[in-house]
Each structure stands twice: as structure tokens, then as C-alpha cells.
Amino acid sequence: MSKRVLITGGGSGIGKAMAETFAAEGARVFITDVNQDVLAECPDSWLKMAGDASSPEHMREVFARIAGEWGSLDVLCANAGIAGPTALVEDIEPEDFRRCLAVNLEGAFLAAKYAAPMMKAQKSGVIVITSSNAGLNGFPNRAPYAAAKWAEIGLMKTLAMELGPYGIRANAIAPGCVEGPRIDGVIAREAKAKGTTPEIIRAGYEAGVSMRSFVTAQDVANMAVFLASEGARLVSGQVIAVDGHTENPDPKV
To answer: How far is it, in rounded angstroms, from Cα 214 to Cα 175?
Structure first.
């Protein structure tokens, strides 16, 4: 039987690359996204639902539909997230801090909360959380994002311990800078905050990576598919960096 895969934040970027790669492997794919327009551009063969990953009501509806359509779930990719504000900690509004944690951390928690009973009942399953190398290092001017991504790793390790006895594995992927509009926006905001140019900020990020390169959404998707495969059957509780090896999370150039 083909894998049944749910990907939150699956309408664009890393999430869409995950969906496409799982589908190419023969999986049945269900994506959620807060943006209805990007969902409309995804294949009609995928199950789709628009909504906020940090909303308990939305996630209950998603899993009710999974129960009705598929009966259970084999793979959860808790991928939904937002960049949050770019500012020094003293300049960040509390509501912006809370919103960043809600989408990134609470979104992953809710998805795992509703996936766990399904997976425990079948005594199998895989949970992959999209964290970040910001969850392995500090990240100046990005306190809410770094806090959320560190917390996601703690959540993942706890899930691995709670669910392992039921044959369920949990891991996190820690991407570096991923090519695309999202990192372009982050770089532009950081350049503005530091009074410099996006080109200088980008060069600084690249200089802090051993391989002197950003990664692609496909690089991250490939790791997700591997972690969900039999080839990773005893890989659990791990953080896998897909970042070309970050030497310095805040390089100065």
C-alpha cells in the first residue's frame, strides 16, 4: 500500500517540494496551507485544505478528513512555519513573538498531537519536523524564529521517546538558507535593519557555510523522503542538518 503523507505548509517552497517528491515515489499526498491561491496551483490528485496550522479547529478538521479519506496516516511532515520579525530583541513586539512561536511550534505540536493516536493504533509511522539550523545556533535579529526552532527540536526528541515503543519514529531536518522568495525577504529585512545591502548579507551567509552555497527546497525534500523510508528504519530522535555545514551562523563580511 502506498504511503499516506500529510505535509503542513505544503503549498509552496520546502513543503511543495516534499509533496512532489513523495508523490513521485507513489505516495498519496495531503497538503495544508494558509494560502488558498498556492493550493489551487497544486495537482488535483493531492488532497488539499486551506487553514492556519496553529489553529486547533483547523487541525482537527484536517485529521477528521484523513480518517474519512484514508483511515490513518503513515508520514507527517510538520513543515508549516513563518519567518517572524527581523529586529533586535528589544524592538520586537510581544504579539509578533507569540505569532512566530504559534505557527512554527504550536503548528508542529498540533499536527503531532492528532497524528499520534492514528499512528499508535497501527503501531507504525514517521514524523518529520522542519526545524532550521537556527535551532542549532543563535540567530541575531531573529529571536522568535530561533526560539521556535530550538523548541521544535525539544518537541521532536520527546515525541521520539514517547512514540518509539509503538514503532513510530520522529526526526527533525535543520535546513540552512534555502533558495527562494522567503530567504530573499529575510535577507532584505536584515540588510535594512543593519543599514547595508542584500548582496553583502547574502555573501556573509554564504561565507559562513563550508560549501559556500545555499541549499534548495529539493535538498530538504530528499532528506524527508529518506527519513520516511525503510532505509532509515532505526533513525529516530535525530536532527539532520541539510545546510552545507554551517561554520558561523552570524558571519561578518
So the answer is: 9
* Annotated catalytic residue 145: yes
- pLDDT for 252 equals 55
Q: What gap in Å lies between CA 147 and CA 35, rounded to an integer?
A: 25
Residue 82 lies in a domain: yes
User: Which H or E element spans position 5?
Assistant: strand 4-8
Which domain range does residue 164 map to? Answer: 4-178+214-242
Q: How many domains does the chain have?
A: 1
What is the rounded radius of gyration, in angstroms, for the C-alpha atoms of the chain? 18
Residue pair 129/155 in contact (Cβ under 8 Å)? The answer is yes
In a domain, 253, yes or no: no
Q: Return the CATH number at 126.
A: 3.40.50.720
| Among 114, 145, 166, 205, the one annotated catalytic | 145
pTM of the predicted model, to two decimals?
0.91
- How far apart CA 96 and CA 130 sit, in angstroms, is 20
